[in-house]
Design goal:
The protein is of the alpha+beta class. The chain is built from 8 helices and 5 strands. The protein has a 3-stranded antiparallel sheet. α1 crosses α4. It is globular, with a radius of gyration of 16 Å.
């Protein structure tokens, strides 16, 4: 049980901070699709792949005081910021984890918007389909997002770039 919690804390040790619940969901999913051994199960939801397991683990880590969740009022919505705490760092030091080097992938993901990561994760969710069918699927399941041809092209290039960064 705690091994999966420790993997998430390792992610936060690398990422330092993640802004947004949706962004966190997409980052973990995309890393998982890049063969990082996160074990959360995902299903398709309003904003693309979503893991109830990840939500529950994050809640547990926050309740244990290992991850800090800062809720920021943005007038018409709340923004959540996550970071590993000193207690989380101390706990993680007690763990032996066999995790690949993910610094480059995490940096690439952190520099993208949650909207873009929603597109990328949705494309990866349907990656067993031919690319042309993936594009049709995006327009079917995400019509309100109005993803442009340029955004989709950028997402394909981003996926390719992520896959070219081997995990050590």
């Amino acid at each position: 049980m705690l091994k999966n919690h420790a993997k998430l804390m390792h992610f936060f040790q690398v990422a330092k901070e993640v802004t947004g619940r949706k962004k966190l969901q997409k980052m973990i999913y995309i890393l998982q699709k890049c063969k990082v051994p996160f074990e959360e199960k995902y299903q398709f939801h309003f904003y693309g792949p979503y893991s109830e397991e990840l939500t529950l683990r994050m809640e547990e880590l926050c309740n244990l005081g290992f991850i800090d969740e800062d809720k920021e009022d943005k007038s018409n919505y709340y923004q959540y910021n996550y970071a590993i705490t000193k207690n989380g760092q101390a706990f993680l030091e007690q763990f032996t984890l066999d995790m690949p080097e993910i610094n480059q992938q995490v940096e690439l993901l952190k520099n993208k918007s949650s909207r873009f990561l929603e597109l990328v994760s949705t494309m990866l969710y349907f990656s067993d389909m031919p690319n042309s069918d993936v594009v049709k699927k995006i327009h079917t399941v995400k019509p309100k997002q109005n993803f442009t041809h340029d955004e989709i092209t950028e997402a394909w290039e981003f996926i390719e770039r992520l896959n070219k960064r081997p995990l050590n």
